[in-house]
Amino acid sequence: MAITINGTEVPLPEDPRMSLAEFLRDGLHLTGTKIGCNQGGCGACTVLIDGQRVLSCLTLAVQAEGREVTTIEGLSSGDDLHPLQEAFIAHDGFQCGYCTPGQICAATAMLRELAEGMPSSVTGDLSRPAPLTAEEIRERMSGNLCRCGAHNGIIAAILQVAQEGAA
Amino acid sequence: MNPFTYRRATTAPEAAAAAALPGHRLLGGGTNLVDLMRKGVEHPETLIDVTGFSQQIELTPGGGLLIGGAVRNSALAAHPQVRRDYPLLSRAVLTGASAQIRNMATVAGNVMQRTRCTYFADPAASRCNKRVPGSGCDAQGGFTRYHAILGGSSACIATHPSDMCVALAALDATLHLLGPDGPRALPLSEFHRLPGDTPHLETELRPGEIITGVELPPPLPAMRSAYRKVRDRASYAFALVSVGACITVENGHFAEIRLAFGGIAHRPWRATRAEAALRSGPATPEAVEAALKLEFAEARPLDGNAFKLPLARRSAAALLAQLIGETA
User: What is the mean pLDDT of chain B?
Assistant: First the structure.
């Protein structure tokens, strides 16, 4: 009965009512993961399970038993920032920063999805890998809201990292 | 949230047996059920996690596709065969929710998801015949922008929120069910019920039955299909109106036409009247216009959603015009 968080195995909470978001924050003090709406509407609680982006507020911690969870704390090591974190700073991809961990976790998985050729609803031709455009990134990041309105900076930051990765 | 116990089923028969027990509910991705539990709408005593089996997408002997009930929405939309042979399904799924939610949500859970009627989701302040049979409906006379214009009743005007199911209806999909009496199959178009005076009975699923998969018939040669969704923002929003269509045209006539709407009724609305009027007839804007008028003859729009009637007709007409153009 264990779950792996950022490479460390931890025992599951006893109460199955505990969401993964609550477990991360209150049980493990990994407060980088934020709870915004707590109903699957804002994306602030986005984490990765086995590399896939999911909403930790709508995931029961017990559902993640035996799986690997990566949070924003697991993306960087110390002051060595993840390229997306660097780019968010460079492009002013946030103001208050509350949605940022969710944005960056979502973007991490989104770049992999793009690289694997997964389509989105704005992909013109489903038979080919989607092109790397701001429009594609905007659609793919639509599950992460930013009330400060930093979306343009967010898209620019992700696009830069995507282009550097593709280069 | 009420206390509950959680366990994982490892096979479909095990899940079906558990589903027959009182207070037991099946848990897929949880994107709808966990939220409704937190809101006090759902109160299961035991959750049976059914994501550990029926995860495959396989070719059927007849050349169709069998999609396991636990396949995630994102995996379904990205599957090479679905993209190639059933692009309507990929398109519809990709317009639904967000990437995170599509990664979590299962195919069977999408079919079983409950209405997003805000009065249904508000036990503290709203009456709802679906939540508490006989208690009344506060949506009537309330904010009805997301409510039904077809097939509603004085007891309930809620809509089924799925995009995927609209595509499945237009694709003539069949649900594979497993219950105490063994397996059976049911067309998706016959699975969801209209509310009548029992809006709490939402599907034809019998006690102890589960959805194990969805079967798509083989794609028709030269079939054209598309999905159009109209919503309040460009992404990550439920449909005000959506429409999915599959057509084949021969010599300027509809050899086949299948048409379904979302966002306007208690179930994914298969437009059987319009289909019957158009099948074998001329593929012209005039014929389409007349058939859509027939389909919506019994529409009962409300003050807050009267815009949906012309919107649904115009969206369907535009979609069919686009598809007819592609076959020319």
Answer: 97
